[in-house]
């Protein structure tokens, strides 16, 4: 058995005549945090959306635990243990924290046909999870998301990924629009997630944040993978920036 | 202290504004016209309320999911025409005619939902088109004449709109149906998993989808529900007034949407309240009845309705902004 959790092979994706991804392959090992970097329009988000089921690739294949995985929808991806935390944190602003945490996987109480949500359990779990991700303020779990700050929202999304035992957590720009303290919270979470046996793909514009937590850096440029195995401990930020913009080639 | 926090919770609810408006309305009409709360007038008020009210209930859940349906008025007119035409021509017994009429509503709702979710056409355009198709069909198959010459002793008639009296007030069975539907939909919206999906579909469809919520299926089901409610209401109405007019229900779609938004349901989805809709239905029904009783010309009705809508929207938006001021 190899140590690979996810392997995407030769992924191609067109939007009309624009080729967003050109034969991109990406693999993530167990307990590994991969930083995915690239300029705007490099194809990072497209690649991630294909893995999380929001888009389907035009060609190419995905393997999870060395098994061919057929990811056609976000539901499929969740079944394979892939949790995605999007830029807009993918919460429903009108719904409460507890309802958001369990959205799509609400626990049911009583006879099935009554379809009744177990709101008591939902609230209890929500209260506990919020503590775990470092919200010390006492926020009632029935508070709507719309009255939370950006960092608190991100924390809710993270709590959700933590709670539903996922193998791979994809963080798409999780530190955007966050304050200093909140950013530290997110980075701390990513390290904790690795320690507790999760793998992560971390996408951020801010290279400094990426350098602080990832094990390996992958760079996309104009839909192509230009670097796959950059070790943040042996490379400088300036070198990586040059690779992203295309001013330098990948060191051999 | 306890009482005060209870009062604050009550004031913070979205139904609070409409509730005060309803209370004020009843007070004003009662003071101006003693006949307003007479048994005869209450009978009168309750006769028509469940018919528009049932459509409003369906519309509330549909609007919570972020869509609305302009074809309800024409479904209200068309389905009873189908039922009575089948019966009058001897093509089917009344019960079968009823089932066929409801099935047609299911199909209409499905087509609306399919166009909106699969072809991604805004519900305004889809249901506007459907409104014209249905109304046109109703006029075409009846040549524009009401279906009126029937006599039937089917128990179905009693079940749907049988009359009974409470004290001096006469109530139709449709009122009971209305209350049952309100309780069921209120439960679905606030307590059930389906309700969570409905609110999520209207609040942020793409993130709901990302969580595995079947947004399209949820919306299609709600379009079907709304059309069936409109059909049931139309059939109840046709039995009560003993005529199925292909033109009946014209303009109901807007009156129903007005009732729903006055009650506090958001026009663009994500937030809906059945209790608010009940209040909204009563506000508009009482207004229509009351201004005639106090001597305002009936033709001025729309002036009041329009003003109430504008006033309530201003109130809701003010409350919304105050609510988010801290973030």
Notes on the structure:
The complex is a heterodimer of chains A (252) and B (327). Chain A is of the alpha/beta class. Chain A has helices at 44-51, 74-79, 97-101, 119-132, 150-163, 180-195, 207-213, 237-245; strands at 4-15, 18-29, 33-37, 59-64, 67-69, 82-85, 108-109, 116-117, 168-172, 199-203, 216-221, 224-230. The longest helix of chain A has 16 residues, at 180-195. The two termini of chain A are 29 Å apart. Chain B has 327 residues and is an all-alpha fold. Helices cover 74% and strands 2% of the residues of chain B. A two-stranded antiparallel ribbon of chain B has the order 1-2. The model of chain B has no long low-confidence stretch (mean pLDDT 88). Chain A binds chain B through residues 52, 54, 73-75, 78, 84, 86, 88, 90-95, 99, 102-106, 108, 114-117, 119, 146-149, and chain B through 188, 191-197, 199-200, 202-204, 206-213, 266, 270-271, 323-324, 326-327.
Relevant terms:
heterodimer; A: 252 residues; alpha/beta; Rossmann fold; 31% helix; globular; B: 327 residues; mainly alpha; ABC transporter involved in vitamin B12 uptake, BtuC; 2 strands; 74% helix
Concise account of the structure shown:
The complex is a heterodimer of chains A (252) and B (327). Chain A is an alpha/beta fold and 252 residues long.
Tell me about the biggest sheet of chain B?
A: 2 strands, antiparallel
How many discrete structural domains of chain A?
1
Task: Find the structural class of chain A using helix and strand composition.
Answer: alpha/beta
CATH T-level fold name of chain B: ABC transporter involved in vitamin B12 uptake, BtuC
Strand order of the largest sheet of chain B: 1-2
* End-to-end CA span of chain B: 27 Å
Please state the oligomeric state of the protein chains shown.
heterodimer
Q: Please give the number of β-strands of chain B.
A: 2
Number of helices of chain A: 8
Largest sheet of chain A: 6 strands, mixed
Rg of chain B over CA atoms, rounded to whole Å, is 20 Å
N to C succession of SSEs of chain B: HHHHHHHEEHHHHHHH
Helix and strand run of chain A: EEEHEEHEHEEHHEHEHEEH
């Amino acid at each position: 058995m190899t140590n690979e959790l996810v392997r995407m092979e030769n992924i191609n994706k067109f939007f009309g005549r624009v080729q967003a991804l050109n034969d991109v392959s990406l693999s993530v090992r167990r307990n590994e945090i991969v930083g995915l970097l690239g300029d705007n329009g490099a194809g990072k988000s497209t690649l991630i959306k294909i893995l999380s089921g929001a888009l389907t690739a035009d060609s190419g294949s995905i393997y999870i635990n060395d098994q061919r995985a057929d990811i056609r929808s976000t539901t499929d991806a969740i079944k394979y243990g892939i949790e995605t935390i999007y830029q807009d944190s993918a919460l429903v602003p009108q719904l409460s924290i507890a309802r958001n945490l369990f959205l799509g996987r609400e626990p049911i109480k009583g006879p099935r046909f009554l379809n009744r949500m177990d709101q008591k359990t939902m609230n209890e779990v929500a209260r506990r999870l919020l503590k775990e991700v470092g919200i010390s303020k006492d926020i009632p779990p029935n508070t709507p998301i719309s009255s939370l700050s950006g960092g608190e929202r991100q924390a809710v999304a993270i709590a959700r990924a933590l709670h539903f035992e996922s193998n791979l957590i994809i963080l798409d720009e999780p530190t955007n629009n966050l304050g200093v303290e909140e950013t530290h919270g997110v980075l701390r979470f990513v390290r904790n997630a690795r320690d507790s046996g999760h793998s992560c793909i971390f996408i951020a514009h801010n290279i400094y944040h990426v350098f602080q937590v990832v094990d390996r850096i992958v760079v996309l440029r104009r839909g192509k993978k230009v670097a796959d195995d950059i070790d943040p401990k042996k490379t400088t930020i300036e070198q990586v920036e040059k690779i992203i913009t295309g001013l330098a080639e990948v060191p051999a | 202290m306890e009482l005060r926090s209870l009062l604050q919770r009550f004031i913070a609810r979205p139904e609070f504004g409409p509730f005060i408006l309803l209370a004020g309305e009843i007070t004003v009409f009662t003071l101006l016209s003693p006949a307003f709360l007479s048994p005869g007038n209450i009978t009168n008020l309750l006769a028509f309320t469940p018919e528009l009210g049932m459509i409003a209930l369906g519309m509330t859940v549909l609007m919570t999911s972020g869509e609305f349906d302009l074809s309800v008025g024409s479904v209200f007119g068309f389905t009873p025409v189908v039922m009575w035409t089948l019966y009058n021509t001897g093509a089917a017994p009344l019960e079968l005619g009823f089932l066929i009429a409801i099935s047609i509503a299911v199909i209409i709702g499905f087509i609306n939902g399919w166009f909106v979710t699969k072809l991604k056409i805004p519900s305004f355009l889809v249901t506007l088109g459907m409104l014209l198709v249905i109304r046109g069909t109703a006029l075409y198959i009846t040549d524009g004449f009401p279906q009126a010459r029937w006599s039937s002793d089917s128990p179905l008639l009693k079940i749907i709109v049988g009359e009974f009296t409470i004290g001096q007030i006469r109530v139709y069975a449709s009122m009971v149906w209305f209350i049952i539907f309100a309780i069921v939909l209120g439960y679905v919206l606030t307590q059930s998993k389906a309700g969570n999906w409905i609110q999520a579909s209207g609040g942020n469809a793409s993130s709901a989808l990302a969580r595995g919520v079947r947004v399209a299926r949820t919306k299609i089901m709600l379009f079907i529900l709304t059309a069936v409610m409109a059909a049931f209401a139309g059939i109840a109405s046709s039995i009560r007034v003993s005529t199925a007019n292909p033109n009946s229900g014209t303009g109901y779609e807007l009156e129903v949407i007005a009732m729903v938004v006055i009650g506090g349901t958001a026009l663009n989805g994500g937030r809906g309240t059945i209790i608010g809709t009940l209040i909204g239905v009563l506000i508009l029904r009482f207004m229509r009845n009351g201004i005639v009783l106090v001597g305002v010309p009936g033709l001025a009705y729309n002036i009041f309705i329009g003003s109430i809508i504008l006033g309530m929207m201003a109130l809701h938006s003010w409350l919304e902004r105050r609510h988010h001021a801290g973030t």
